[in-house]
Every structure is written in structure tokens, then in C-alpha cells.
């Protein structure tokens, strides 16, 4: 996994091309972040399909490092609400840890994202938000 590969991954994510994004993950990959655990392609598509029906989410990469076993980056996740996402709607999805956001509001979060890599595919991902 190199920067060009990751740029293709980020572009697919920003374009909501979930199948292409998930193709970067190895079978059995563990995607766990902020209390969300996505074990399958269907889980991935369901979670992001729901989230992105309410918000436009984009990743801007600021720092990037990679080896054969790890991709690490620091970047800004920008979330812009395209329609209201209230606490009840989040709770109905089991997403109690997420904050409501109203249409037109923007949240920007600095994140550190680490991906474990094997044979050029992600096997696990973890994220931390930096205040």
C-alpha cells in the first residue's frame, strides 16, 4: 500500500463508492471505530449508506506514512449535514455515541487513522479523534 493506492481509496470514499472502498479490505478485516464494528461488506454499506444519507463526509489527508504492514495518516474529516440527523434517529441505528447535527452545520475533526495491512489489503482499521 503506497500513497497513490491510498489516494484511490480516499477518492472512492469521498465519492461514496462503497464497493470500491471495501475492495481495499482483506476478507475477514475488522473495522472498529468509535463504537462501530463493521464485520462485512453489507455492514459497511449499511452504516455508511445511512450516515451519508444525512451528511457529506470528506477526508483530507495531511500526513501519510506506510509500510508493508501499516498505513498511518493524520487528516481532517469534514462532516456537513445535508439533512437533520437527530438523537432519536441515531439511537434507532444504535449510534448513541454520535452527536446530532442539523442540516447546513459543519463539523471538522482531526483524526489519526491506522490501518493494518497484509498482502496490500487492509486487515483492520482504528481511529482516534484529536480535540
Task: Describe the 3D structure.
The chain contains 4 helices and 6 strands; from the N terminus they run H-H-E-E-H-E-E-H-E-E. It is of the alpha+beta class. Strands 2-1-6-5-4-3 form a 6-stranded mixed beta sheet. The mean pLDDT is 94. This is SnoaL-like domain-containing protein.
**Percent helix:** 25-40%
Chain-averaged pLDDT: 94
Determine the structural class based on helices, strands and strand pairing.
alpha+beta
The largest pleated sheet is described as:
6 strands, mixed
Unreliable residue runs: none
| Oligomerization | single chain
Q: How many strands in all? A: 6
Pfam families: SnoaL_2
Protein name: SnoaL-like domain-containing protein
InterPro entries: NTF2-like_dom_sf, SnoaL-like
Keywords:
131 residues; alpha+beta; Nuclear Transport Factor 2, Chain: A; six-stranded mixed β-sheet; 4 helices; 6 strands; globular
Short description:
With 131 residues, the chain is an alpha+beta fold. Helices cover 27% and strands 45% of the residues.
Topology overview:
Layout: H1 3-14, H2 18-23, E1 25-33, E2 36-38, H3 41-52, E3 55-66, E4 70-81, H4 87-92, E5 106-118, E6 121-130
Parallel strand pairs: 1-6
Antiparallel strand pairs: 1-2, 3-4, 4-5, 5-6
Protein name: SnoaL-like domain-containing protein
Organism: Sphingobium jiangsuense
Domain SnoaL-like: 7-124
